[in-house]
Design goal:
- The complex is a heterodimer of chains A (about 525) and B (about 900).
- Chain A is an alpha+beta fold.
- Chain A has 2 domains: about 220 residues, Alpha-Beta Plaits; about 240 residues, Formate dehydrogenase/DMSO reductase fold.
- Helix content of chain A is about 45%, strand content about 10%.
- Chain A is built from 17 helices and 15 strands.
- In chain A, strand 2 and strand 3 form a beta hairpin.
- Chain A starts with a strand and ends with a strand.
- Chain B is of the alpha/beta class and about 900 residues long.
- Chain B is about 30% helix and about 20% strand.
- Chain B contains 27 helices and 34 strands.
- In chain B, the strands form 10 sheets. A 6-stranded mixed β-sheet of chain B has the order 5-4-23-22-21-6, with helices on one face.
- In chain B, strand 31 and strand 32 form a beta hairpin.
- In chain B, helix 2 crosses helix 18, helix 3 packs parallel to helix 18 and helix 20 packs across helix 21.
- Chain B is globular.
- The chains are: A alpha+beta (about 525), B alpha/beta (about 900).
- At the A-B interface, helix 1, strand 2, strand 3, helix 4 and helix 6 of A face strand 3, helix 1, helix 6, helix 7 and helix 26 of B.
Chain lengths: ~525, ~900
């Protein structure tokens, strides 16, 4: 077998950005897009400060999160370990971008030119329309590798088969080769030098190895990089709020959860009462609107059916597949109310919201999303909002006291469960550590599903058991807090993983020092 | 990539010499006539020290070539008024019209006499980048040679931004215009502000990476944690401009804190002036007959001439000796049994007060660190060991000291370069494997071979072409407007000397003349190429005003910029990837460009010229034709003014001198001559060969990296530690100046010491600023420094988007770097825009916080503050150039200043 990897010798790297520039040339990336770049880290307080440079890009992981989440199968992994993107299949949903914990994926929606106005002649020459609106990232110069292999060249040894960043590296810091070949350049380097991989704890098996010291024989377990909540001068490498998914994606989670919850509540209620078609219609409309918002957000909207191509691993595909019966049976339910259509629709809806929850859970690039408790929290939130919405409408429609009491009781249970799920989620997130920005955003009032806030909501709901208008108010509060939370979760707490350097390199005769995970904190 | 099928695809060879640390070789990929990609030249991997690679700057050349902001036709100014706020009203004109206008001015200047009423050349020229423009200007040097006297004294940064003291004293002491560790062999490098990972080019970066790989220790002594500091084993955050104290303390450690036999006594006795006896008035005691300096021979217990065979010279002790002492202007003192000591003994006494504890208080560095640094230096020196190179056994001394900008220019530069070179001598590590090497010569001749430049001079030392200071020989006026022959003996008078004179004096004189020097005049015609002094020099307003007063300025223009805004004619020349030229590569050149090969490389056009741009060689030929200088011009080319002499032993590819030649014809002849030179006349392949192969080389003996074998062969000594010659010429110079009534150079004259004493450099700056500007220095609490950046330095590429984009990945670009503790006291946060004010000017920029800088120091990387250059003018990046005054008080005796000023930081209030 062959497993191509990159080895970056941090003792040699000088942060010159020659690799960055060579990559931009070789791949004609748009201004501002850097498939390969070198980060600038600084650790310590004056005067005990050290500084190091860290080349990053697509890690061509053993277990790439981008691969599993891709709904279209545009992202693939070759037998030699190179992760590729089929620009003609990708819909530009950017799910891979939020799933990547290395910030290695980009989407360019418009042709960009360096100097504004008219493109330069080489920009015209190299403009690739296929790359507009879809995911793009380091290809490890796969075309060059393949062309070189076809000529009998050896990747990592012969420049004609070696990625541009490696060939151009003036410090000889970057190496590329076959990890499965024990005699390869990279295998030798890894045998002889201490090394780490970035975010090793995430289990992605990244394909860039960082050498930080000699003496592999003395190798001891590497401590994780210490979290530093407010590092000086490291904004460029600290977690940043993701910008791939905005309010449109948030709308899908908000309306999808509440809509499916409302539909399920409506169907359950319909088992005992005449079907409230308006509630079912509203539920379907909400979910549909959410999906429409997402459609507005993807880069290649007219390829949207490609979203169905990866049911094997992508929760986004599964979400889309769940949407189909939800809308199908849901429409039937509107036409022929009854459990035969309602139950399958409701189950599909619940599957839909579960898929949404798992979409977030699978987004390894966003610590606030990938926390395991997010799945339970998102599902319960959707159900709670659905019941709350049903309750509000029930009050407005003048339901009887007992009916309202049943709804109110269910709501109270769900409020409590939601608060519990939140507490579990938030606690685990704080214990594991998360980007400071994410924690701050989640702890803001507008996102707060904590016990204290929800106790108030619960109190209002209890009063609402005896006073329908108050019950409606409780429903509104449930919806407002739930939607606020999800909006925050998607657009404000969605700080990416950021970068980290596990060890500062030994420079020459110097000594290695602990690294840093900037912008992170535990509780 | 485009989906449309390419019609043609090819690659051509070229080189990158945008910075002084080049040249490096590259390939340009071209599709349908459009250059789109730069690649390393893998075929040069075996002959180039950095395996045929080029740095980030070279990758900017595609944007540089295709930049829509380029000037693409000759332009002529229509608004006679010049100035920043004047619209030049440039109108496109034909090449004929532009060249006619220039030749008309030139012909008039020639008719009026090549020199004006003050004796200055009527034609001046300014080129940027440490001589690198020469490799892009084709045969223009041949035109200048044909023209006659040209004033090159209007600097674009030299003297104030370069390693000025290293250039001058380096050439004096070891033919070292630039100095480098023998990086392939060194074990320990003490780097005082040298930033080789930013400005050492690809050869420097590759070699130092190799050195780190094998465990070299580099200690970076610098107020901020630069890229080089980052790559070093240890960072010592020294107080700005106190490096001489640190280095003097290192000398103290070596001379007072370790056994004497740990030094290389044999080297000191045989290869330095250490044994020379110093007479009572400070000059060498000489044999009255031969006038040779005397040494005390321990074998015979008597004083003998330094070159007496079979002696054992004393380094220490006091002896009663008779002899002759020769002072300035040949004044003589005869001594009888005078108590004299060897120069080395004087050195020992001289550095005694400079203890690590003394230096610690000055440098704000713990004495233990200084002492430990000294001990490491001696521990790694391997005194007594030898190594064989090219069959020659030489000393092996793998320790070296590097000096950076601001450390080795301006006041304090002499001290640092002296101490550095002396440190090498003490362990026998000067110009030997592993040690401290010069890599190129510029003031001594010939400039392409350091060994050949080793010519015996007085007193057993190498000769040095000082500007004369003796009565009757001294130049009371100079061939340049900065008076380099008058004021700076060390600047010599080679073609490079004008660039190494006090270049800021040329600008200062335009504002106000100096007493008793010729009246400063403006050049009738000023040529400008690859330089932008309006932003790259100091006190930029003064420079801009001076340029606005120049009557006729011709700028070879790439885009509009701050300097050519004042021009009368703009000429668009083929840029790096469009022009044709053959240059020398390899051998031993700037910085770390010492190769195992030497030869030639071609800059093969990768693109048709954009618009009406023309090859520089064509422009030079046209100017020569239109000024009736064709014969001289062609003769100059034949003699090698364009880089390659066209005739030699067994070959002659000279151009007929009586007619103009095409660009390709000229370079084809050059290629043939190059082939012949490399093969001793056996082969003569021309342009097509170089187009196919890109370059051609032959081996360069590694032994020639080191001056030591040639010094031994000629039995010469390095002129250290005692500077008798400088002491003498300083006194002579003082006499000459005073005879002419010039007293404003007196402070500089004090620098002519036999051994430099410590002077409070920070206080010198503070006092000068307080007195000149009537300010309280406490109101300007920070020291502001600048640093080079690999992405920008020398590149003239601030207008390139890609360079800006990738440079932003390296912390410090785009703002003012400061320590968070300092920022906190001012209530400043990351990204906040501030005004940085010195007593002379202001600039604005964003705060960049890093722990890797002293709290009393600020840093601005590169040179910005553009107001005209497209793209660059929108960067809002601060620059210290507007803040740095040009002051005589801050000019050292070599005519250089240092990038250093005191500043205050004020909130602008605007948050990012």
């Amino acid at each position: 077998m062959t497993r191509y990897v990159i080895v970056a010798d941090l003792n040699r790297c000088v942060g010159c950005q020659t690799c960055t520039s060579a990559c931009k040339h070789a791949n004609a990336t748009a201004p501002g897009i850097q498939w390969r770049k070198v980060l600038d880290f600084e650790v310590g307080d004056f005067p005990d400060v050290s500084r190091a440079f860290l080349p990053v890009g697509c890690m061509h992981c053993d277990d790439p999160p981008c691969l599993d989440v891709c709904p279209t199968t545009a992202t693939r992994k070759r037998a030699d370990g190179i992760v590729t993107i089929d620009y003609d299949v990708c819909i530009g949903c950017a799910y891979c971008a939020v799933a990547c914990p290395y910030q290695a994926r980009f989407r360019v929606d418009e042709p960009a030119v360096a100097f504004g106005g008219k493109a330069m002649r080489h920009e015209d020459l190299l403009e690739d329309p296929a790359r507009i609106g879809v995911a793009q990232k380091c290809t490890m110069c796969v075309d060059l590798i393949d062309a070189g292999l076809s000529q009998g060249l050896t990747p990592g040894v012969d420049p004609g088969a070696t990625p541009a960043c490696v060939s151009s590296c003036i410090a000889g810091a970057l190496h590329m080769g076959d990890l499965d070949d024990p005699n390869s350049n990279v295998s030798k380097l890894l045998r002889e030098n201490r090394h780490f991989r970035m975010h090793e704890d995430l289990g992605t098996g990244p394909g860039i190895y960082y050498l930080y010291d000699k003496g592999i024989g003395d190798h001891t377990a590497i401590e994780p990089a210490p979290m530093v909540a407010d590092p000086v001068g490291l904004a460029a490498v600290s977690p940043k709020l993701q910008t791939n998914w905005d309010w449109r994606a948030a709308a899908n989670f908000i309306l999808g959860g509440a809509g499916t919850g409302l539909f399920a509540t409506t169907v359950i209620a319909g088992l005992f009462e005449p079907v409230h078609w308006w509630a079912a219609f509203l539920a379907l409309a909400m979910v549909g609107t959410g999906l429409f918002c997402v459609w507005l957000e993807i880069g290649r909207p007219w390829r949207f059916l490609n979203v169905l191509r990866n049911p094997g691993t992508s929760w986004m595909t599964r979400e889309a597949m769940a949407a189909a019966p939800f809308f199908g049976f849901g429409a039937l339910y509107l036409l022929w109310p009854g459990w035969m259509a309602g139950v399958p629709a409701a189950v599909s809806g619940l599957a839909f919201v579960y898929c949404q929850a798992r979409i977030l859970r699978a987004a390894k690039g966003i610590p606030a999303w990938r926390q395991p408790g997010i799945a339970t929290l998102v599902v319960i939130t959707g159900l709670t909002e659905g019941v709350a919405l049903f309750g509000v409408m029930a009050v407005l429609m003048g339901f009887e006291f007992m009916e309202l009491a049943i709804v109110g009781s269910g709501l109270m249970v769900l409020i409590a469960l939601r608060a519990l799920a939140w507490q579990t989620y938030r606690g685990a997130l704080g214990t594991a550590g998360a980007p400071v920005g994410a924690l701050n955003a989640l702890d803001q009032g507008r996102a707060n599903l904590s016990a204290r806030v929800q106790a108030v909501v619960l109190g209002v709901a209890i009063i609402g058991l005896f006073n329908p208008p108050v019950l409606a108010l409780a429903g509104v509060l449930v919806v407002v807090t739930g939607w606020g939370f999800k909006h925050t979760l998607i657009t404000r707490a969605a700080f990416n993983q950021g970068y980290a350097i596990t060890r500062m390199p030994a420079r020459g005769a110097g000594v290695s020092a602990p690294g840093i995970k900037p912008g992170w904190a535990t509780e | 990539m485009s989906t449309s099928a390419p019609t043609t695809r090819k690659s051509v060879s070229s080189y990158c010499y945008q910075c002084v640390a080049g040249p490096d070789l590259l390939k340009v990929d071209i599709q349908d006539g459009i250059p789109y990609q730069i690649r390393p030249n893998a075929s040069a991997a075996d002959i180039h020290p950095a395996a045929g690679k080029v740095c980030v700057k070279a990758f900017g050349l595609i944007q540089k070539t295709n930049n829509p902001n380029r000037i693409q036709t000759p332009m002529m100014r229509t608004n006679p008024k010049k100035g920043r706020n004047q619209d030049p009203g440039f109108k496109p004109v034909s090449w004929d019209a532009a060249l006619d206008a220039i030749s008309k001015k030139l012909n008039k200047a020639r008719a009026d006499g090549l020199k004006d009423e003050s004796g200055f050349p009527r034609v001046a020229a300014s080129f940027g980048g440490g001589g690198t423009p020469t490799v892009y200007m084709g045969t223009f040097p041949a035109f200048l040679s044909a023209w006659g006297p040209v004033d090159m004294s209007f600097g674009s940064g030299q003297g104030v931004k370069c390693y000025h003291s290293e250039h001058l004293y380096g050439e004096l002491w070891h033919r070292a215009f630039t100095v480098s560790p023998d990086t392939p062999l060194v074990e320990l490098i003490l780097s005082f502000g040298a930033n080789v990972e930013a400005s050492g080019g690809v050869c420097g970066v590759k070699r130092h990476a190799d050195a780190r790989d094998r465990g070299v220790k580099r200690i970076q002594v610098e107020p901020h944690l630069s890229v080089t500091g980052a790559c070093s084993a240890q960072w010592v955050p020294i107080k700005p401009k106190t490096d001489p104290a640190f280095m003097f303390a290192l000398l103290h450690v070596l001379l007072h804190e370790i056994p004497r036999d740990r030094l290389d006594i044999a080297f000191l006795k045989r290869r330095t002036s250490s044994p020379y006896l110093v007479a009572p008035n400070g000059f060498y005691l000489r044999d009255p007959d031969s006038l040779k300096p005397l040494i005390w021979d321990l074998k015979t217990a008597r004083a003998v001439a330094y070159d007496t065979a079979d002696t054992d010279p004393a380094l220490e002790g006091e002896f009663a000796v008779s002899g002759l002492e020769t002072g300035p202007d040949d004044v003589e003192w005869t001594h009888k049994d005078a108590p004299v000591r060897p120069a080395f003994a004087h050195l020992v006494a001289h550095v005694e007060p400079y203890t690590p504890e003394w230096a610690s208080a000055i440098c704000d560095v713990k004495s233990a660190i200084i002492r430990d640094t000294g001990m490491q230096y001696i521990d790694h020196a391997h005194v007594g060991e030898t190594i064989e190179v090219d069959g020659q056994v030489m000393p092996f001394r793998p320790v070296a000291i590097s000096l950076g900008k601001t450390v080795c220019n301006g006041w304090g530069g002499y001290e640092c370069v002296w101490a550095r070179t002396l440190m090498a001598c003490l362990i026998g590590g000067l110009e030997v494997p592993g040690g401290t090497l010069g890599t190129t010569v510029r003031l001594n001749r010939p400039a392409d071979n350091r060994w050949s430049s080793v010519v015996p001079g007085p007193d057993g030392f190498m000769n040095y072409p000082m500007n004369p200071t003796k009565k009757g020989e001294w130049h009371s006026s100079s061939s340049s407007r900065h008076a380099h022959q008058t004021l700076v003996p060390l600047a010599a008078n080679s073609p490079w000397s004008q660039a190494l004179g006090p270049t800021h004096l040329a600008w200062m004189m335009q504002k106000q003349g100096f007493d008793h020097l010729p009246k400063p005049t403006q050049p009738d015609v000023w040529f400008v190429y690859r330089t932008n002094p309006v932003i790259s020099f100091w006190d930029t307003d003064v420079v801009a005003d001076a340029i606005a007063n120049f009557p006729f300025t011709v700028c070879f223009a790439y885009t509009m910029d701050e300097t050519n805004h004042m021009a009368d004619i703009l000429l668009p020349e083929c840029t790096d990837l469009e022009g044709l030229q053959l240059i020398r590569i390899g051998g031993s050149k700037y910085v770390e460009q010492f190769w195992d090969h030497q030869g030639f490389a071609l800059r093969d056009p990768a693109s048709a010229p954009m618009g009406e741009a023309r090859d520089f060689t064509w422009i030079a030929t046209e100017l020569a034709r239109r000024t009736d200088l064709l014969e001289k011009y062609n003769t100059a080319i034949n003699k090698g003014a364009a880089g390659i002499r066209l005739f030699g032993k067994g070959y002659d590819f000279s151009l007929p001198v009586d007619k103009p030649h095409s660009v390709e014809e000229i370079w084809d002849h050059s290629c043939r001559a190059a082939s012949a030179e490399l093969t001793d006349g056996a082969q003569s392949q021309g342009l097509e060969y170089y187009r196919e192969h890109g370059f051609r080389t032959k081996p360069f003996p590694r032994a020639q990296w080191y001056l030591y074998p040639e010094m031994v062969r000629q039995d010469l000594r390095f002129e250290l530690p005692y500077q008798e010659r400088l002491l003498r010429i300083g006194q002579e110079l003082g006499a000459r100046l005073h005879e002419q009534g010039i007293t404003w150079w007196d402070r500089q004259l004090k620098e002519y010491e036999a051994m430099p004493h410590w002077q409070d450099l920070q206080g010198l700056w503070e006092d000068a600023l307080e007195k000149r500007y009537d300010v309280k220095i406490g109101d300007y609490p920070f020291w502001l420094l600048s640093a080079r950046s690999m992405q920008y330095s020398w590149g003239g590429n601030a207008g390139l988007q890609m360079i800006h984009e990738v440079a932003a990945n390296v912390a410090g670009h785009g703002g003012v770097l400061m320590n968070p503790a300092a920022a906190k006291t001012l209530g400043l946060v990351e990204g906040e825009r501030v005004e940085i004010a010195s007593p002379t000017g202001t600039t604005t920029g964003a705060v960049i916080l890093r722990n890797g800088i002293r709290p009393d120091t600020l840093l601005m990387i590169g040179q910005f503050d553009h107001w005209k250059t497209p793209f660059a003018k929108d960067l809002k990046t601060p620059s210290m150039n507007a803040l740095t005054p040009m002051m005589l008080e801050l000019t050292d005796s070599t005519g250089s200043g240092a990038d250093l000023v005191r500043v205050a930081v004020n909130k602008l209030g605007a948050r990012p």
